[in-house]
Design brief:
Layout (H helix, E strand, L loop, with lengths): L1 E3 L8 E7 L1 H4 L6 E3 L3 E10 L2 E15 L6 E15 L5 E3 L1 H10 L42
């Protein structure tokens, strides 16, 4: 998203944009953006400083870290930024947007809090059914040998 400093009026401006995730390099293990990221920015300028309130929203596909099932969700993020600017400058916010997205990634992606994961022996998704292994069930519920 580019902001032309000279186009910011006294009342500020509201900008909208769509950025393809591949431009920002934000897909990560377990998280894939399905469609472009919608961006809204309310921008004000005072003297040599620019203030921006930015909101991001995009549909994403997650991969559960326990059972490897895929599920969809909406990624939403709001943040503010302040930057010193000069007249006739063009401010590119792509790097700041990418950093804010990456900082907001969940530490652990699970499809649901009670996800049972996969059987470590046969790979059966224990959320969808039991397996025929001798010690079936989630690994944390198995007796220690």
């Amino acid at each position: 998203m580019k902001i032309y400093v000279d186009k910011i009026s006294e009342d500020g401006i509201e900008l909208t944009d769509e950025i393809k995730p591949e431009v920002l390099l934000v897909d990560s293990e377990g998280i894939s953006f399905i469609k472009p990221i919608n961006i809204k920015a309310n921008v004000l300028k005072s003297g040599s400083e620019m203030f921006a309130d930015i909101s991001l929203e995009a549909p994403v596909e997650y991969t559960c870290g326990k059972c490897l099932s895929k599920f969809e969700g909406i990624f939403k993020k709001k943040f503010n930024m302040t930057q010193e600017v000069k007249s006739a400058e063009i401010v590119d916010l792509d790097d700041e947007i990418r950093q804010e997205i990456v900082l907001d990634y969940p530490m652990k992606i699970v499809c649901k809090a009670e996800c049972k994961g996969l059987c470590p022996n046969c790979g059966q998704n224990l959320n969808t059914g039991e397996c025929d292994c001798e010690h079936n069930g989630p690994i944390e519920n198995r007796p220690l040998h």
